[in-house]
Design goal:
The chain has 218 residues and is mainly alpha-helical. It contains nine helices and no strands.
């Protein structure tokens, strides 16, 4: 199956959600604990991006945001930007984790639509927005600061209450968005069914043509 080309509408949505992630950094970071990994609202933007746009558009929105940040634009919370935040910063792993996290949230959201039930949606958001991001962020923090993995993991627990609230907010907002604007996330099952219908139609047409040809020969 050929990948669907991004439309102008898709590109606009990608740009809007990249801007949303940047806007959520305006309040600035909050530093807690002994490790210099700040708490920000931008993770909420990543969760919303995956839950509203799906895996493909969500990935490109986060990638656009990160590319602009790496190019030097001060888009991270607190006006931070530049390549250093992707290489030597203790929080670099969390930024890379955003890319995988948005893919997981977006993919699972596509599987849950159009119903998007509350608890499965919350589980999908927690898996992509917390578990996956921490799975990349914590080891990178430990490696960068030469800490034992358990030490970085214990310090990362300071994020959990806030991230849990972000996951709940994401699901509540996404439910309303998908109810008001169905079709934002293309559903794989719908595409597969359409392909199967097209194949069935083509087969029927071919069979009819062959039958007609035999009848004319007789």
């Amino acid at each position: 199956m050929t990948a669907r080309t991004l439309t102008v509408r898709d590109l606009a949505q990608i740009a809007i959600f990249a801007a949303l992630i940047a806007a959520l950094g305006v309040p600035g970071p909050l530093s807690l604990g002994v490790i210099a990994v700040p708490i920000t609202l931008q993770t909420l933007g990543v969760m919303l991006t995956g839950a509203v746009l799906g895996a493909r558009k969500g990935f490109f929105a986060v990638l656009l945001f990160l590319a602009l940040t790496a190019a030097g634009l001060p888009l991270l919370a607190g006006g931070r930007g530049g390549l250093a935040w992707f290489t030597t910063s203790p929080s670099a792993g969390y930024l890379y984790g955003w890319l995988l996290g948005v893919l997981v949230i977006g993919y699972l959201t596509g599987r849950l639509l159009p119903k998007y039930p509350l608890w499965p949606a919350l589980g999908a958001t927690v898996l992509g927005g917390i578990v996956v991001i921490y799975a990349i962020g914590v080891p990178v923090t430990a490696f960068t600061l030469h800490l034992p993995i358990w030490g970085a993991l214990i310090d990362a627990s300071k994020f959990l209450p806030g991230d849990a609230i972000k996951a709940v907010v994401t699901v509540l907002v996404a439910r309303q968005v998908h109810r008001a604007y169905p079709g934002l996330v293309p559903r794989r099952r719908a595409v597969t069914a359409s392909s199967a219908t097209t194949t069935s139609t083509a087969t029927t047409t071919t069979t009819s043509a062959a039958t007609s040809a035999r009848a004319s020969d007789e």
